[in-house]
Amino acid sequence: xxxxxxxxxxxxxxxxxxxxxxxxxxxxxxxxxxxxxxxxxxxxxxxxxxxxxxxxxxxxxxxxxxxxxxxxxxxxxxxxxxxxxxxxxxxxxxxxxxxxxxxxxxxxxxxxxxxxxxxxxxxxxxxxxxxxxxxxxxxxxxxxxxxxxxxxxxxxxxxxxxxxxxxxxx
Length: 170
Description:
- This protein has 4 helices and 8 strands; from the N terminus they run ββααβββαβαββ.
- It has a domain at 11-123: Gcn5-related N-acetyltransferase (GNAT) (Aminopeptidase, 3-Layer(aba) Sandwich), CATH 3.40.630.
- By secondary structure, it is an alpha+beta fold.
- It has an 8-stranded mixed beta sheet with strand order 1-2-3-4-5-6-8-7.
- The chain is globular and about 40 Å long.
């Protein structure tokens, strides 16, 4: 097996808010309460997860969760939950409002994609609410394409766009 090209290079830290760094790490069980609170802040009712749903996604045997800690405060600034399969799946990506537009979302997504490629996924998919313009713009910048619409996907009746990104072969 050859060396992995630059497309697979992983950067584990980025800067936001005047140079405050963060570090991406694997989920620890003690993180759960904070992650659930972050999810409630990031998404409206009907889109945010119940504790039961989020716990099931995190605990699923084919899933992984990456957490971003603010290096200065030690507090969690965001997280991502991914699922491994022939096509990976991003379950959720949550970044606190204070850390948005800082590169943290990109760093979390890149770290998750890197893990998926390393574990054999050839592509990744996700869903985003049709009215979540910020998320849709973010995913487009990250190389995702809309492949279909799921009517009334969310429990509040909002449609979802299904997006997909093919991985370059390493």
